[in-house]
């Protein structure tokens, strides 16, 4: 299935993911497939479920005014495995996630977690807010839409930056490349073994790292639409704060067996669990 594949299951969060996926497919000018994973292999049951998915898709197209090519599919098997197979040659897989506020918050479910950990294509998780708390409620940003990319100079983060640049170029958004650092997250400065350089030296080194990552990514945007932001702080905290006014947060993931540990733990995982905006995870 080429284009955008979106997992549906007849819930509020999957409806929001479907709406988002329709807009993404329109932006890319590619077809969309709404896919429902079904354990049964009974032909009549599969056809009945396909009709349900078609109805969900029709209502979404009416709701959003979308006119792109779209189809409803039922895929047989356990949800994670079936959606992974269905999206193996897609441009992107989109999933929904429900949030129940500060006291009842649900982090990424087991099916979505398995998909994100093993997908070979970019995966976007669209979060549905039931009762957003003050600390993570999405806010309207002033000016043009912003796509935030988390950068730490690793190959996956450079791939994420490249992907974010493509989104910004296609949509007219501003790309904000964010490099969050602490002394413990940076390699020792050249010639600094045995002593602690001034913080200004670390700040300058962080800016050099970010500039180098931007250059390696090949991002080509007008100066006014490319922001390079260096901030002292825990990477996850900085990115989560940035997500409150972003249209999308793009992060990198390493390997196919799950998230490898980043300097302060899995920044990508925390972004998926707690970001206020849709999060796209990109592999190498």
Automatic annotation (TrEMBL):
<protein>
    <submittedName>
        <fullName>UspA domain-containing protein</fullName>
    </submittedName>
</protein>
<dbReference type="InterPro" id="IPR006016">
    <property type="entry name" value="UspA"/>
</dbReference>
<dbReference type="InterPro" id="IPR006015">
    <property type="entry name" value="Universal_stress_UspA"/>
</dbReference>
<feature type="domain" description="UspA">
    <location>
        <begin position="146"/>
        <end position="283"/>
    </location>
</feature>
<feature type="domain" description="UspA">
    <location>
        <begin position="2"/>
        <end position="127"/>
    </location>
</feature>
<dbReference type="Pfam" id="PF00582">
    <property type="entry name" value="Usp"/>
</dbReference>
<dbReference type="InterPro" id="IPR014729">
    <property type="entry name" value="Rossmann-like_a/b/a_fold"/>
</dbReference>
<comment type="similarity">
    <text>Belongs to the universal stress protein A family.</text>
</comment>
């Amino acid at each position: 299935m080429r284009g955008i594949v979106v997992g549906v299951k007849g819930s509020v969060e999957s409806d929001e993911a479907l709406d988002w996926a329709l807009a993404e497919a329109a932006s890319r000018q590619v077809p969309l497939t709404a896919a429902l994973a079904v354990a049964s292999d009974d032909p009549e049951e599969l056809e009945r479920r396909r009709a349900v998915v078609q109805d969900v898709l029709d209502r979404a197209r009416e709701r959003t005014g979308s006119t792109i090519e779209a189809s409803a599919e039922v895929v047989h098997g356990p949800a994670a495995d079936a959606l992974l197979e269905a999206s193996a040659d897609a441009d992107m897989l989109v999933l929904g996630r429900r949030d129940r506020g500060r006291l009842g918050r649900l982090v990424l479910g087991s099916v979505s977690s398995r998909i994100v950990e093993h997908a070979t294509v970019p995966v976007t998780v669209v979060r549905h807010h039931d009762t957003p708390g003050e600390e993570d409620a999405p806010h309207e940003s002033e000016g043009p839409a912003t796509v935030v990319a988390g950068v730490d100079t690793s190959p996956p983060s450079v791939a994420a930056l490249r992907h974010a640049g493509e989104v910004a170029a296609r949509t007219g958004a501003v790309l904000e490349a964010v490099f969050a650092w602490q002394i413990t997250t940076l390699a020792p400065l050249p010639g600094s073994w045995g002593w602690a350089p001034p913080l200004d030296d670390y700040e300058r080194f962080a800016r050099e790292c970010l500039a180098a990552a931007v250059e390696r990514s090949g991002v080509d945007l007008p100066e006014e639409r490319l922001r390079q932001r260096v901030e002292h702080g825990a990477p996850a905290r900085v990115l989560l704060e940035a997500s409150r006014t972003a249209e999308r947060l793009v992060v990198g993931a390493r390997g196919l067996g799950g998230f490898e540990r980043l300097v302060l733990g899995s920044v990508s995982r925390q972004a998926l669990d707690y970001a206020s905006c849709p999060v796209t995870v990109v592999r190498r």
